[in-house]
Known about the structure:
- The protein is mostly helical.
- Helices cover 61% and strands 0% of the residues.
- It is globular and about 50 Å long.
Amino acid sequence: MFMIGMLAGAVxxxxxxxxxxxxxxPVSRSRLPVMKRSDLNADGQKHYDAIRGTxxxxxxxxxxxxxxxxxxxxxxxxxxxxxxxxxxxIGPAYFDLAALVAAWEFEQQYEWTSHEGSAxxxxxxxxxxxxxxxxxxxxxxxxxxxxxxxxxxxxxxxxHKVSSALWTKMVGLFGRQGTMELAVVMxxxxxxxxxxxxxxxxLLEGRTPLLPPR
Length: 214
């Protein structure tokens, strides 16, 4: 296991130092150049301001910088959903767990690297993070953590269905609201992952990728 960890670390370090592909903008670090407020009409600027407030531009990376290309209104609604779910009753640790499950399923390095750090800050158990990160069985995890990971895997894999037994377990642990909050956060980050993968979003320069390749 030590040697596997060393190898994974070496691969991630090499990935962090690899040159950007030719079609990646060096500022946005994606296939889409940074969109400025001045690039939009008056209606678009209104939606832009709802996302960024008084910030000078949309930012160099991340879901908002990519999804605004689908239309400023769509970008605003996408941003608003994410902000609303950050206030969900499940709390920040389970918000991060849901984001990590989706990021792993879509091999989304930008999402994973961002949320692994916040998951640790929000005290999500390290064993739970590693179970998601290395696709390990949930045996031995705290019951709520194990159920939430199992729930996400059921939604993203196989026939994309949650069994009656798993639903009953989830509602017993999280309630109906918490269960659906987890589902919506996972869906939100799956949608973000599709957009980020389409634009081939790379990490900010100097950031170390935390999701091992597979």
